[in-house]
Amino acid sequence: MKTIKVSVVTPDGPVYESDVEMVSTKAKSGELGILPGHIPLVAPLEIGAVRLKLAGGKQEQIAVSGGFLEVRPEQVTVLAQAAEKASDIDIERAQRAKERAEQRIQQAQQEHVDFKRAESALRRAVNRINVAGNR
């Protein structure tokens, strides 16, 4: 089967680079599936997983915290604010971040806590936990 080159890049540098058979992810406009030869596209990404189908039926996931997806016929580039391969995620750290975010959300009603920021932190932590759980 044909493959397409995928690069996942953050401000800190490259996170992932390989040839894959298919890329699936969630953009702000909905779920996207990209195969080799896909028409050019640029789309903003949601906090979520980039799912990569590798040769031989294997799959990998990368947790991304928003960003942009650029598709060209022979290459997909994910420009993410933050990204981690499932194998690199520290589940305990993600669980602690989730608990902190949940506490901040509960405090938001009583104190001057930025609710949207706490909610976004919670979504990022849950995403990391989900991606790490699907190793």
Radius of gyration: 16 Å
Beta-strand level of the residues, as a percent range? over 45%
| Overall mean confidence score, pLDDT | 88
Number of strands: 8
Unreliable spans are none
Q: Sketch the major β-sheet.
A: 8 strands, mixed
Number of helices: 2
Give the N-to-C terminal Cα separation. 24 Å
Shape: elongated
What class would the helix/strand composition place it in? alpha+beta
What is the chain-wise order of helices and strands? EEEEEEEEHH
Helix content: 25-40%
Defining key terms:
single chain; 135 residues; alpha+beta; eight-stranded mixed β-sheet; 2 helices; 8 strands; 27% helix; elongated
Can you characterise this structure?
The protein has 135 residues and is an alpha+beta fold. 27% of the residues lie in helices and 46% in strands. It contains two helices and eight strands. The protein has helices at residues 91-108, 115-133, and strands at 4-10, 13-20, 22-27, 30-34, 41-53, 59-72, 75-80, 83-85. Strands 1, 2, 3, 4, 5, 6, 7 and 8 form an eight-stranded mixed sheet that branches. A hairpin with a 5-residue loop joins strand 5 (41-53) and strand 6. The two termini are 24 Å apart.
